[in-house]
Amino acid sequence: MKIYFRYLMFRIVIALCDVFPQRFLYFVALRAADLNFFWLDPAGRKAVEDNLRIVLPDASPARIHKEARWVFRNFAKYLTEFFRFRRFDREFFRANMAMFGLEHVDAALEAGKGCIVSSAHLSNWELGAAGLSILSGRRMTVSVAMHRYGRINDLFMHERERMGLRVADMERNAARTLIKALRRNELVGIMGDRDPTEQGVPILFFGQTCRFPQGPARLAISTGAALIPAFCLRRSNDSFSAVFHSPIPVPETGNRDEKVRIMTQAYADIIAETIRLHPEQWAVFYPFWQASWRPE
C-alpha cells in the first residue's frame, strides 16, 4: 500500500509539472514536503534526523530538526524539477547552472580515455548530469540502481531518457556498458555514496565504518579514465552550482584492492566535506550506517 501511494504521488507530481509554472510547483512541493515530514513518513524523518546527528554531532536538537525538514523540502523541489527536465534546454542551463572546475573534465576528455563523474545524493544530482551533458556536448551514460517497484522505475527511466542520458543498470553488468562509453571517450556518471550490491569497500565516513561502492575506483583503475567527484548544489534562489573536483589519483603502490580502498576513502572524504557544508541537501531517507538496511 505504501509503495502504491508513492506511485500515485509521483503520477500527481507529473500531472502538475505539465500544467503549472515552476514557482507554483515549488510552493506545492514545500507544502507536500511538510505534510510528509510531520505526518506521513515518521520512519523517514527519524532516519534523516539520526543521520544528521552523526553528520553534525555538536548541533542542537532544534538545528537537527530544521535541517531534516529542509532535506524533505529540497527533495520535493528536486522531484518537480526532475519531471520537468524535458523543458530544460541549453539556455536554461546557461542561465541557471554555474560550472566550477569544468577544466578537470575537459582535461580528462582531452586525454582520450573518457571521464568518470562520481556524485552523491546531494541536491539535484540528475540535473547536474543533464547540464554537464548538454553544455559540454558530450553524451553521458549513468549507472543507476533501479527501483524495486516496476511502475515507479518506469516513470524515472522515462524522464532520464528524455534528458538524453543513457542508463546502465547498476546491478546488471553495468560495467560493460560503462567501459564501452569510456572507450568512446564519453562521460560516465556514477553515484558513489550508496552500495545497493552490498559488496562495497569498507571506509570511514564521518568517523564511522560503512561500505561505499567500489565500482568508481575499479573502473578508473581498469580503464585509465579520470575519476572526478562532482556535486550539483542548490543555491538559495533555486539556481545551481555544479562543482567538479580534481581527479582522485590512483596510488602508485599496493595491489588493486588496496588502491580501490584508498581511492574510495579519498572520495568519501570529499563527500563528507560537502555534506557538512550542505546537510540540508543530503537526500538519504534510511539509516545510512546500518549495513543490513536496504533502501526501498
Description:
- By secondary structure, this protein is an alpha/beta fold.
- It folds into two domains: 1-83, no CATH class; 90-284, no CATH class.
- The chain contains eleven helices and nine strands.
- The protein has helices at residues 2-17, 22-40, 42-55, 61-82, 90-96, 102-110, 125-136, 150-162, 174-183, 215-223, 256-277; strands spanning 97-100, 115-119, 140-144, 166-169, 187-191, 201-205, 208-212, 226-234, 240-244.
- The strands form two sheets. The chain has a seven-stranded mixed β-sheet, sandwiched between helices.
- Helix 8 links the parallel strand 3 and strand 4.
- Helix 2 crosses helix 4 (61-82), helix 3 crosses helix 4 and helix 10 crosses helix 11 (256-277).
- The chain is globular.
- The model has no long low-confidence stretch (mean pLDDT 90).
List the helices and strands and how they pair.
Elements: H1 2-17, H2 22-40, H3 42-55, H4 61-82, H5 90-96, E1 97-100, H6 102-110, E2 115-119, H7 125-136, E3 140-144, H8 150-162, E4 166-169, H9 174-183, E5 187-191, E6 201-205, E7 208-212, H10 215-223, E8 226-234, E9 240-244, H11 256-277
Parallel strand pairs: 1-9, 2-5, 2-8, 3-4, 3-5
Antiparallel strand pairs: 6-7, 8-9
Concise overview:
The chain contains 11 helices and 9 strands. With 296 residues, it is of the alpha/beta class.
Assembly classification: single chain
Q: Which H/E pattern describes the elements?
A: HHHHHEHEHEHEHEEEHEEH
Helical percentage: 40-55%
Count up the helices: 11
Q: Kindly give the count of domains.
A: 2
Strand content: 15-25%
User: What's the N-to-C terminus distance?
Assistant: 13 Å
Principal-axes geometry comes out as globular
Give unreliable regions as ranges: none
Largest sheet: 7 strands, mixed
What does the average pLDDT come to? 90
Question: How many whole angstroms does the radius of gyration measure?
Answer: 18 Å
Strand numbers in spatial order across the main sheet: 1-9-8-2-5-3-4
- Pairing-aware structural class of the strands and helices? alpha/beta
Number of strands: 9
